[in-house]
Every structure is written in C-alpha cells, then in structure tokens.
## 1
Amino acid sequence: MSVRFEDVFAWKKAYNFVLLTYKALSAYPENEKYGLCSQFKRAAVSIPANIAEGYKRIGKADKLHFLNFAQGSLEECRCYLHLSKDLGFIDMETYYTLYESLEETSKLLNGYCKGIINNA
C-alpha cells in the first residue's frame, strides 16, 4: 500500500495529463482564455486533486465519492479534447498525445476504484 497520494499510479498519470494539457492550451487563441481553456484547465486539475483528496479519506464510500468526481472530470476533459480537435485548436499529434494520456489515466483510475471496492 502506498504511503502518500503521490505514490498512487493513477495520480501520477493524472498529474502528467495536467502538465500536457497546460502545455497544449498555451497555443490556443487568446479569445479562448476565459472560455474553453479555463474550463479545460479546471477539469484537468480536478482529476489529480480529487484523487489526492480521496486518498486520505477513511471510509471506502468516502474515498470512492472523490474518485467518482475525478472520473467525471476525466470525461469532461475527453469532451473538451474532442472539441479542441474539431475546432482546430490542436493538431492531430497533440490530440493523440493527450487522448492516450487520458486513456491511461482512465484505466488506472478505474483499476484504483476496483481495488478499493474489492478490498474488504
């Protein structure tokens, strides 16, 4: 078992996704600073933040509550990623890099949740 939330693989992958997202968003049009960029950043940051918050919760239901918020924010990012691609704000290479990172994060987060559920 990990001692710190920073040791949780899902958190590490989610944190990396945030860094990749911020880098990609720096190239968005200035008029999206308070629109799509703001929403995308908020949702991206919410993923590792909720994993970290849920990590120290004592009860299984409380932990899963925060991890479910992280899952919701992850899916919100998936929507913003498609939108960013379709609006031409990111190229296909950036899209695939972010999408792959998001998929890996999703798989690890789902596994983390299953581990908590199955750990009696």
## 2
Amino acid sequence: MKQELDKCVLVIDEAMPRGLAANTAAILGITWGRLRPELVGEDVTDAAGAIHPGIIRTPVPVLSGRPETFQTLRRQLAELEFADVAAVDFTDLAQSCRTYGEFIEKMARTGPGELRYLGMALLGPRHQVDRLTGSLPLLR
C-alpha cells in the first residue's frame, strides 16, 4: 500500500450500540489484515527491548453511515469508475450466526437486497475513496 496514494476507511452503521460498532470494526479490520497483509507494518521495539506487533501503516478514519449509505456504496462500487476500490462488508446476517457454517448456509439463500449492512471497509486510490465517502461524518 502506498500510503500517499491509497486510503482505507471504515463506515459503521450510526444506529448501532457502541459495543456492536466496535465488534463490527474489529471484524472488518481482521478481515483486511488477512486479505491485505501488506497493510500491516513490521514489529517495533520499545526502549526496554519489548517487541510490539506491527499495526496498520496508515490512519483509518471511522465514518458514520445509515442503511441507505451502504446501499449507495454497494451500487457505486459496482461501477467501472470504482473498480480499483476493494470492499469488505459485515451484515446483520453474519452477526446473527453462531458458526461460520451457519453463515455460509444462510448467505447462500439470501439475495443481495435482503442484506442489512452494519459496516463496510473500503481500500483503494485516495481520490476514489474520498469521492465515495468524503461527505460522511466521523462516527461518534
């Protein structure tokens, strides 16, 4: 990831309680770390010699969205103009499942229009991510 060229943002449903919002952000972050390990910096050592695992190399704004925000983002991400922007999403369907197997089964029977998005992480060229999310407020 070229920090000056790429941008990563999280968009979280503004209506969720804090704990669920934090859980959604954590899940999205873990998924990004698996999909894009180059986002994570090298381990660092403090003055006492203790090693601390690397963290993401760039700031990650956490923005606020509404249900219609996520539907709009999904539509825009399908456009050729935003082909270089990658997205990870987390839905109410995923949150309701107790096992990953249950998630797989339920998702296979669910149409895209039936999903309610709780959060989305976007990564791509800064100008494109800004065009998609620049008007969204920070999550409070």
